Amino acid sequence: MSLEKEPPAVHAYNLIEKVLFQPTHFNRKKLQQELSGKTILITGASSGIGEQVAYMLKDLPVHLILVARREENLRYIKNEIEKAEAAVTIYKADLRIDDDLNVVVQLIRALPEGLDVVISNAGLSINRSIHQSLDRVHDFTRTMAINYFAPVKLLLALIPLLEKSQGQIVNVSTINSLLIPIPNWAAYQASKTAFDTWFRSVAIELKASCVDTTSIYLPLVKTDMIRPTAAYDRMPAMCPNHVAEIICKSLYTKRKKYRPWWLLFGQLASIVCRGGLERVMTKVNERKGDPRAGS
């Protein structure tokens, strides 16, 4: 099997992006002190954010467990990381499939060193009008399967291990979970909001068991997930490397949540100006024409 893969590109910020996405002051020494000797599970690790987090941890004496569907990408990443310090175990798995998920759980439970950190990153995004979805109920079931049911099932199985190690769970979420819903994103927003609500609900219980939880609320990120939507090429987006720094920083600060500085204003507008925003979105949507005429 070939181990050739495109290296992850670094997205250079323009002026607007530099303002929107403030730099992260990242302390590698503190990260090493916190993680040395620990076992870290990263889902959705074959590209994008998950891949970048794995590379950021490669020089530490840690055991990385990388889970994703693309085995060839995982093998390449494992080969690159093991040139450095970290040990790597890869599992090819589609977490929407119970048999795959159960195999991953069994293998992790069998690890003699246990489990210290879960970075829940695997996800699926769909941008489609409701009129184009009338005969595509599978869009909703498969999105809920990976964005909600899979991480719930995985964490329910692994929480006892995290309680034993007094570990941490990091959920890679979206700012859409905290803002007014927008058209064409019903499947994605519903599934991500469902898990965000579940995660914040159990966080209080987990804290009582000495398990830390962190929610990372992200805007657009320059990954494979957004490439199919051409309009996003012109919109501000975060660099996956920057996001990886934010996630890794949360592993030693134990900060409960990260959100862009401007998200608070968006949340306020979503409440105070909800009616006006909905009217604006309705007019914009009407100008696009009849969505049923599309494919």
UniProtKB/TrEMBL annotation:
Identification of the protein by name: SDR family NAD(P)-dependent oxidoreductase
Keyword Methyltransferase appears in the UniProt entry: no
SUPFAM superfamilies, per the entry: NAD(P)-binding Rossmann-fold domains
Any single Pfam family the record assigns to this protein: adh_short
InterPro entries, per database record: NAD(P)-bd_dom_sf, SDR_fam
UniProt keyword list: Oxidoreductase
Domain of life: Bacteria
Family: Belongs to the short-chain dehydrogenases/reductases (SDR) family.
Gene3D superfamilies: NAD(P)-binding Rossmann-like Domain
